[in-house]
Amino acid sequence: MRLRLIVLCAFMALNTFFSAADSPGPPRPPIRADLGMYTPGMVPFGIGEPVKEARILADEWQKTHPGCSIKFLTVPQTGTTEGEWLKTQLLGGIAPEIVSMNTEVAWQAIDKDWFIPLDEYLQKPNPYMPGNEHWIDMFENQALFNSKRAPNGKLYCITYDTVETGLYCNMTLLRSLGITQLPTTWKEMLDTFKVIQSKNITPMTAPSNLASDWGEDIIFEMLYHDLMPTLDPVDSPPDVKAYQEHFLDPQEGGFLFTKGFFSSRDPRWREVNRLVKEWRGYWAKEQKFSDPNYLFLTGRLAMLWDGSWTIRRLARDPYINFDWTVTYIPTITKETSQYASGTPATLIGGAATQIHITNSARIHTNLDERVDFLMWLSVPQNIERIANEALIFMPSVKGAKTDPRLQPFTEIFRRKSCAIQWMEAMDPEYKKEWRRWLDYYLNDGFGMDEYLKVLDANFAAWVKSHEKDAAWDFTAMESVWQTRKEVLLRELDPAP
User: Of the chain's two ends, which shows fewer C-beta atoms within 10 Å, N or C?
Assistant: First the structure.
C-alpha cells in the first residue's frame, strides 16, 4: 500500500511539472512605444487620414516573436518640447520603453540614467538586413547620426528620419506682381518683399517662433562663418565634420559668453539681432495665433517659410489653384552686412524622429526585444512605408526611397548644418525667458539696447546655473582661449 502511494505521488508530481512547463504562464507586459508623428492613429499636423503603417509592421513583427506585443501610445505634450510629462514618468520608473523626443532634451538627464546608451547595439548586425554587420552602417548620413552623441560621447537615440525647412513660393502670385526670378541674396529678398508689400500683400511669414528662432540661427552662421574656425573652442569630432564642422554646443556658447561674445558687447551679435528685427517688418503682423499655412493656401501670402511637413498639407488640399515651388533662405552678402561671409545659408533642420529607449526597458522588461523591434522598423522597405505614408519627413536609412514630393528638401539637405541652435541650447526656464523678451523686441516692445541688456542677464544666469556641472568645466576651453584671445578680443573691441 505504501509503495502504491509513493508511486502515485511521484506520478502526480511529474504531471504537475510537465503541465507547468507547457503552461504559457502569466502574460508578458507589452512593449509600449511612442513614435511621434508615426504613432498609429495620429493625423500628422491634423491633415488627412490617421497613419497606420507602424501598426501593420508591428503586427508582422509580433508573428515572429510569440508572447511579445506592441502597444502604441502617444506621449502627452505640454505645450513645450521639454517633455515634462515624460520626465515625471521616468522619475517613477513607469515611462514607455520606446519614445520619440529631441535628444538634446535627453542630454539634460543623462546623469539620471533615464535613457539607454545604444552604442553597443548599433555595433551589432541587424538580423533583418542581409549582409549587415553593424546596425549603425544602415543609416544614410553618418555625420548627422553621430552629431547626436551626448556630451559624454554616447548615443542615446537613432536618427530615424530627417526634416528641413524651405521657402514655399506662390509663383502665380509673384508673376502677377512682375516677379519672375526668386531672390538669391538677402538684399534681393528684401527688395522683392518691398515690391510685394507695396501691393498690400504680406511678403512672407512662418509658424509661430520659427522665423525668429531658427531664422536667428541661420543669420548667426552667415555672420560668424569666417570667425568660426578661431572662435570654436572645441573642434568637432572627425565623424561629425561632414555635417557640422564648427558647431557650438551649449557649454561652448556659455563659455564664449563669459568672454564677451553673444552679448551687448559683441558687434556681430548686435548685427544678428538688427537683421532679425528688419526681417520681421515683412512678416505677417500677427504671429502667435494665426495659421500661416492657411494664408498661403488661400493665396494671400507670397512666401511661407516652413518645414517639409507642409508638403503633406499641400498634397492633400484639393482646392489649391496656383503654381508653387520650394527654394531656400537667400545668402547674406556684403551689400547687407560688413560681417557677411557670402556663403550659402545653412541647414536648420536635421534629425526629425529621434527614437530613444528608456530605463523602463531595463527595469521591467526585456531590453533586447525593444532593440530588436527598432531594428525591424529601420529596415529600408519598412521605414519607407512608414515615412512615405506620413509624407512629412525624409527616411534616413540607405536604400529607402523618399516620396518625390519631398525631393526639394533632399536637395536642400546637402548643405552643412548651422553653427548653433540657440533656443535648443538653453535650459527650459532660460529659453522661455529669452523667447518672451525676443517677442517684445521684434514687436516693438522696446529697442535693441534694452533687449540686449535683459538678454545679457538671462545668459549670465544660465551659465551660472551650470557652474557645478562637470560637463561645463571650462578648463580645456580656457587653454584654447589663451592662444587665441588676442585675435578674438579685437572682434569685440575693434580699433576705431
Answer: C
